[in-house]
Design brief:
With about 400 residues, the chain is an alpha/beta fold. Helices cover about 45% and strands about 15% of the residues. The model has no long low-confidence stretch (mean pLDDT about 95). The structure holds pyridoxal-5'-phosphate. The site of pyridoxal-5'-phosphate has 13 residues, from helix 3.
């Protein structure tokens, strides 16, 4: 990949220069006053990003999958029942993780590109009375956004802890942890949080921490155990150094830099920018005559789009787009992976980045002998971007 390529995949994304500078700094000691302050600030600011008034943040070296694993390890005891509202590949991964810790898992599925109906979810909650329910706010394999607010409210009604996989959503898609009654939200650094890969992030509600404290069985995973991590997070929040396992110092400094940028923009402005950028991209794909995976427009995510190749075009389109310096991703859902592509539009993404992407897609389609009005996608995107 050339140094000037534009990375428009669902993570890692394009990172802000200030974030990359933090990555390249000489590494201070993890117990130095400067680092203690940076880590404490990052933990405090995470609450503002998750819109969680009283959540307990965790920042641990690892990827998004580790964040999911940690949530499951600390909340599941053998024989607990769990409901997984599946919208694709990553929801199914959550089901596998929960099973690994001994949960009896009910997976609710819908056709690719849609979300199980609230009736189906309610029925499963009523019959299994699960300890927890997981939803994937944005399923990166399908570009489908679930209605987390509604699903979390249903979960609460039936006494289930509501666990949200926010890996492709948090800090981009609208999310209000306290207001929506979400107990656990996990994410990773390399998506809308805007930090290179390597941090597993979680925000636990007081109720989720009580559920952890009330466990009868020890957490069967040493590295994941909150008993090891909670005192560390609390210490840094109180601006005291502490040690369980060496923190990824530069990544935490980069997180501090990125959270400053995110909160400098403001969460409401950030949600709006993501909505408009997504709408612009999705309007462009419509104008080009391309069909999208989500089965209705209201299910389309604000952070990523999944688009079918039109007839006569295949995955060689990706290489053509790349030859114009824009990197987009292929399909991920096993049964239809070769039939669609995905474009991430989150974090620092600008109107200019989006137009460059739409332009490169148009040029790729043109070179694939697909018939369309050249410029129609750009024009549709421009119409929406006027409002940015
Ligand atoms: C990327 C992603 C994951 C996995 O994160 P990794 O950092 O790759 O482990 C999980 N869930 C969703 C929704 C994702 O987008």
């Amino acid at each position: 990949m050339s140094e000037r390529d534009l990375l428009m995949i669902p993570g890692p994304i394009e990172f802000e220069p200030a974030v990359l500078r933090a990555m390249g700094r000489p590494t201070p000691s993890h117990v130095s006053p400067e680092f203690v302050e940076a880590f404490g600030e990052a933990l405090d600011r995470l609450r503002e990003v998750f819109l969680s008034e009283d959540g307990q943040p965790f920042v641990i070296a690892g990827s998004g999958t580790l964040a999911m694993d940690i949530a499951a390890a600390n909340l599941v005891e053998p024989g607990d029942s769990a409901v997984v509202v599946s919208t694709g590949y990553f929801s199914d991964r959550f089901a596998d993780i929960l099973k690994r810790y001994g949960a009896d898992v009910t997976v609710l599925r819908a056709e690719p590109g849609s979300v199980p109906s609230s009736d189906v979810v309610e029925q499963a909650l009523a019959t299994t009375r699960p300890r927890l329910m997981t939803t994937t706010q944005v399923d990166t394999s399908t570009g489908v956004a679930a209605n987390v607010e509604e699903l979390a409210a249903l979960g609460q009604e039936y006494g289930a802890l509501s666990v949200v996989d926010g890996v492709c959503a948090t800090a981009g898609a609208e999310f209000r942890q306290t207001d929506w009654g979400v107990d656990v939200c996990v994410t990773a650094s390399q998506k809308a949080i805007g930090v290179p890969p390597g941090l597993a992030l979680a925000m636990m509600s007081p109720k989720a921490m009580e559920a952890f404290e009330a466990r009868k069985v020890e957490v069967p995973n040493y590295y994941a155990d909150f008993a090891n991590w909670l005192p560390i997070m609390q210490a840094y929040q109180a601006r005291r150094p502490s040690y369980f396992a060496t923190p990824p110092v530069n990544l935490v400094l980069a997180l501090q830099a990125s959270l400053r940028i995110i909160l400098g923009e403001g969460m409401e402005a950030r949600f709006r920018r993501h909505r408009l950028i997504a709408r612009a991209f999705q309007a462009a794909m419509e104008a080009l005559g391309l069909r999208q995976l989500p089965t209705s427009p209201d299910l389309r995510a604000p952070t990523i789009s999944a688009v079918y190749y039109p007839d006569g075009v295949d995955s060689s389109l990706l290489g053509k787009i790349r030859s114009d310096g824009v990197v987009v991703a292929g399909g991920l859902l096993p049964q239809i992976a070769g039939r669609y592509f995905r474009v991430g539009h989150m974090g620092a993404v600008s109107a200019g980045d989006l137009l460059a992407t739409v332009g490169a897609i148009e040029r790729g389609l043109q070179r694939s002998d697909y018939e369309f009005d050249l410029g129609a996608g750009l024009e549709a995107a421009q119409r929406v971007l006027e409002r940015l």
